[in-house]
């Protein structure tokens, strides 16, 4: 039964049924074409939006204004439809397409209620998404491109001549820069982001507790003294369950929406009468199965 509820065809049927119900509830055959009905749900909706914005209920006068505004909007909307102003209007088309997207999202959410087994299978399949990068704690000095014509050779020379001095003394040998001399437990991806280049990958195989290099970044050439390296780690399912659930829901929603769209698309016969080249024509017709 659960598997059946996840079938995209059922999603399609539910969407059609939902649209039919909404239409049936909002259209009364006994009403004239020009009848506009404001019921309790409309008033509640207006009041809710007002309270959300102003943090209080509207006064009688304010509610009267809201109702008048809603009626004016409905009247102008219907008159616009009579004049076919909705045709070939990109803004209206985009908005209506978005509303259909929202409907498919709502339906997907209704039928998507994963079990722990579903989430664990998803976690195992996409475990690389949740892998925490390596972490480094290290000292560094840098020889910048601005201050040295050949920063790599400068770094090698300093390492050869001063490699055995204390860490404190070593700090005086590099160029002043607006980032820390000591990094503690910084993730590899953040390190690359801060210093530029792929400095973390270069540091991967370097030894601990000694000055080594050269290591290049976006600023120049570094010498580094690594005090600790923590290998990449995969957090447990329990630790990541909330994140996994969020990712699972998102992926299932995207998959459902795509399958629903494919079902809808298959009911249309696309005709390309535009003057376009053969390659483009064939590509579009292939995509739409026409």
TrEMBL record:
* Pfam families assigned: Rotamase_2
UniProt keyword annotation of Signal present? yes
UniProt xrefs under InterPro entries: PPIase_PpiC, PrsA_foldase, Trigger_fact/SurA_dom_sf
Which reactions appear under catalytic activity for this entry? [protein]-peptidylproline (omega=180) = [protein]-peptidylproline (omega=0)
Record domain PpiC: where: 114-242
Tell me which PANTHER family the record gives.
FOLDASE PROTEIN PRSA, PEPTIDYLPROLYL ISOMERASE
EC number of the protein: 5.2.1.8
Keywords assigned by UniProt, alphabetized? Isomerase, Rotamase, Signal
Name of the protein this chain belongs to: peptidylprolyl isomerase
Which organism does this record belong to? Answer: Marinigracilibium pacificum
Query: Where does the sequence pass through the membrane?
Result: none
């Amino acid at each position: 039964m659960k598997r059946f509820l996840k079938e995209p065809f059922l999603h399609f049927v539910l969407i059609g049924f939902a649209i039919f119900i909404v239409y049936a509830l909002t259209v009364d055959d006994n009403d004239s074409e020009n009848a506009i009905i404001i019921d309790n749900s409309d008033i509640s909706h207006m009041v809710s939006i007002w309270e959300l914005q102003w943090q209080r209920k509207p006064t009688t006068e304010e509610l009267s204004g809201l109702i008048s505004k809603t009626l004016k909007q409905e009247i102008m909307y219907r008159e616009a439809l009579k004049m076919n102003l909705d045709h070939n209007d990109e803004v209206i088309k985009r908005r209506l397409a978005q509303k259909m997207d929202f409907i498919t999202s709502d339906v997907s959410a209704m039928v998507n209620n994963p079990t722990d087994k579903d989430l664990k299978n998803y976690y195992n399949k996409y475990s690389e998404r949740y892998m925490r990068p390596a972490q480094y704690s290290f000292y560094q000095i840098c020889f910048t491109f601005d201050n040295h014509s050949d920063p790599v050779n400068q770094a090698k020379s300093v390492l050869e001549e001063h490699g055995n001095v204390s860490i404190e003394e070593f700090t005086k040998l590099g160029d002043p820069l607006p980032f820390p001399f000591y990094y503690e437990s910084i993730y590899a991806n953040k390190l690359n982001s801060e210093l530029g280049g792929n400095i973390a990958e270069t540091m991967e195989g370097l030894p601990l507790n000694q000055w080594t290099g050269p290591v290049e970044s976006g600023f120049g050439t570094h010498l580094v003294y690594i005090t600790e390296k923590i290998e990449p780690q995969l957090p447990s399912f329990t630790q990541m369950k909330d994140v996994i659930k969020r990712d699972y829901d998102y992926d299932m929603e995207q998959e459902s929406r795509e399958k629903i769209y494919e079902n809808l698309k298959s009911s249309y016969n696309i005709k390309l009468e535009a003057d376009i080249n053969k390659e483009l024509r064939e590509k579009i017709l292939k995509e739409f199965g026409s």
